[in-house]
Every structure is written in C-alpha cells, then in structure tokens.
Design brief:
Helices cover 49% and strands 8% of the residues. It is mainly alpha-helical.
C-alpha cells in the first residue's frame, strides 16, 4: 500500500522547506527514490503542488499494485486503463457517457505525465513510451525552438476527453456589485465579513487565513500574508494594500469578536494564536486558526441566503473579481497602471498568470474595444481628409 506523508527537505544553506514524499508499507525507500526526487523538485517551487501530486500518484501506484506492477513496470495501456477508471460511469446505460469533466481527468493525469517525463529526462529505464514530438507551427515550443516530450497514447485520451467529456462545471467568474453586497449582508459574523472584503482586495483565501497580527499594518493599510502561492515559509512575501472597507471591517472584528475570544482564553490560562482569523464557536477548536474548509462552508451558506447558487461560488471569486475590475479600468485608462503595479497587486511572477482571469467575452471589455475602434476609424478618416481633401457631391475636392 502506497501513502503520501509530509516531510522536510534540508537545503544547502541549512534551511528547511516542507514537502511530501511517497512511502510503501512493505518496501524500503530506495524503490521510490526517483519518485521522491521528483516530488522534492516540485516542493522547491510549490509545496501545495507537491502535496497534490503525491496523493494522486499514490492512487495510480495503488492501482498498479492491484495488477501486480510497480511504477517502473507500467505501460501506456496501464495509464489509459487508470484514466478510464475515472472516465466512465458504471451505472450509465451507455458506456460512452463520461462522468468527469476534462479538467478533473487531466488533474489525475498531469502528475503521472510529469513523473514519466522527469524519469525520461533523468535517463531512467521506464516502459512508458516518452518521445520527443515534432515541432509544429503554432506550438509555443516550436517558436522557442524547444523539443517537447510527449506520451502519445495517454495524451490522446485527454484530447478526446476535451472533445467528448462531460461539461465543465460553471462557476461565477466575477461578482456584480449587487452580488458583493448580498453576500456581505448574508455573512453572519464580523470575522466572515472581513475575510470576504479582503478577498475582494485581490488576496487568495490561503493568504488571508494565514495572516498574522504582526503582518497587518493598520496605519499604512497593508497586509503581508504568512503563506502565499509562490512563498510558503513566511519570508519574502508580498505586501498588498487593503481597501477602506476591508480595514474598517477588520478593525471591527479585531476589537470585538477576536478580543472576546482572547479574554476567554486568557482567563482559562490558555495560549493565544497570532493568526488574525480564528474560530469563534466554543468547542475543541475554539480560538484556533480558521481553516479553509470552514470558511468555504460559511460562504456557501451565505450564497444560499443571498439567492445565489452555492455550486457556482468559490473562495477565489473575490480575487478574480478584483483582477477583472482592474483590467477593465486599465483598458479605459492605460496610463493609470503599469505592469509592475498589476504584479504588485496580484503577487504574480509574470503577466502570463493573467490569462486564466481576464474575461475575453466580458461585455464591458467589448464596449471599450468598440469605443477604441470607433476612435481609431475617426482619426484615420480625419487624416485621410486632411491629406486628400473631402470629396463633394459633384466630384470636386474641397
């Protein structure tokens, strides 16, 4: 039986980073040495990605073990068989009806694909047919002149899933002003209102929930989260501004609900966490840091009260809303922001990260584009008239 377990990696400078590794109940670590090297490299970039990859690779390894194989004995057909176990609904009358969305299936395949490409590039013997694809025009690898490793047969399965797979779930990409207000009113505690407001300032939910009291600068209106997508050890993290509404709601929470919990814990002789957002309900977790799944449930209940579909609401909606609002404003006022301003606000390493957020089909963006095109047409016609003269009805020039 394979399992994913947390671990710490010691770096050359003596510092540690957290990660995940895979263990087997009946074998030593040497058999999984190259798998855990792969996870180690991932953890250097993102602890969360390494964790997700470790758990999904365990699913695949346990599936192989059921067939009497190890990962280095797996073939293309084994990967395809594993993917098919997620694809098809056994209760369906028609065997071709797919039960998972393309993105869900790809989430299981991406760690497998990444592992075997890593093994291939590390010159490790595997039976999966990793090859170098011919560079084609239109491929970013072609333009960069880079050879692209592929696992042809399993890759084709994912391509077919995108053609014939179940429809992806619909999520709200951007809150309207009415939806913002409705959700804010539906949240019951000052703590939850503050968290939601800060998410609308372009913070990720993990950044908000990991924030500590010492990371909040009330005078400057800045918040420096302890964890972030790119940095997870509390060092070199971005510092981003809070809106006036967020500051007001946060101050209100700190001076009332959180202070009450502090007084209760002090009276009981218990330690107080330095996390800003804590559990308010008496019980085992009273005063402990608020967890992601707790706030997610709170937000879904608020969505129901606000008359919204809770399945369409995610904790990331606040951040994507702010990004789209800023991009729309930037389209109308290009001198208002620089790319560095956008990166400072979002915490992105590069502007390529904007692609999943920007709503290409947003009506507001199309209206702005129409205005720009109209202005360009008017300027072009004006320049033409100035150069050639305006033609009158009798054919003469003015």
């Amino acid at each position: 039986m394979y399992s994913a377990v947390p671990c710490n990696y010691i770096l050359s400078d003596g510092s540690e980073i957290q990660g995940h590794m895979i263990e087997h109940s009946e074998s030593d670590g040497k058999a999984l040495l190259w798998v855990n090297r792969f996870l180690h490299q991932l953890a250097m970039r993102s602890r969360n990605t390494a964790k997700q990859y470790a758990y999904r690779l365990c699913l695949f390894f346990n599936y192989l073990e059921g067939m009497g194989k190890t990962y280095d004995e797996a073939t293309d057909e084994d990967i395809i068989s594993f993917l098919n176990s997620f694809l098809y609904d056994p209760s369906s009358v028609t065997p071709i009806q797919l039960k998972r969305s393309p993105r869900a299936i790809e989430a299981y395949y991406t760690p497998i694909r990444g592992l075997y490409i890593y093994l291939y590039e590390s010159k490790r013997p595997v039976m999966v047919s990793v090859e170098i694809a011919q560079k084609r025009r239109g491929d970013s690898y072609y333009l960069a002149g880079i050879a692209k490793p592929v696992i042809e047969k399993p890759d084709l399965v994912i391509q077919r899933v995108y053609q014939y797979g179940a429809a992806s779930r619909h999520y709200i990409k951007q809150y309207t002003e009415d939806e913002k207000n409705a959700l804010l009113d539906a949240l019951l505690t000052k703590r939850d209102k503050a968290i939601f407001a800060i998410s609308l300032d372009c913070f990720r939910i993990d950044e908000i929930l990991s924030s500590r009291l010492g990371d909040y600068d009330r005078q400057k209106g800045l918040l420096r989260p302890f964890r972030s997508k790119r940095k997870e050890d509390g060092s070199e993290l971005r510092c981003a501004p809070l809106s006036e509404k967020s500051i007001r709601l946060l101050e209100d929470y700190l001076l009332t609900e959180r202070m009450e919990v502090e007084m209760q814990l002090l009276a009981a002789g218990l330690l107080i966490t330095d996390s800003i957002f804590i559990n308010l309900r008496p019980g085992k977790a009273y005063g402990h840091p608020l967890k992601y799944h707790n706030f997610w449930e709170i937000l879904k209940r608020a969505a129901v009260k606000a008359g919204m579909d809770p399945k369409e609401v995610r904790t990331h909606n606040g951040r994507s809303t702010k990004i789209n609002e800023v991009y729309l404003d930037w389209s109308e006022h290009p001198d208002r922001y620089t790319e560095q301003d956008i990166r400072d606000l979002t915490g992105w390493a590069s502007m390529q990260s904007a692609e999943p957020y920007v709503r290409r089909n947003a009506p507001e963006r199309q209206v702005l584009l129409a205005k720009k095109l109209k202005r360009a047409d008017e300027e072009r016609m004006k320049k033409y008239r100035e150069t050639h003269g305006e033609e009158n009805d009798d054919g003469s020039n003015t």
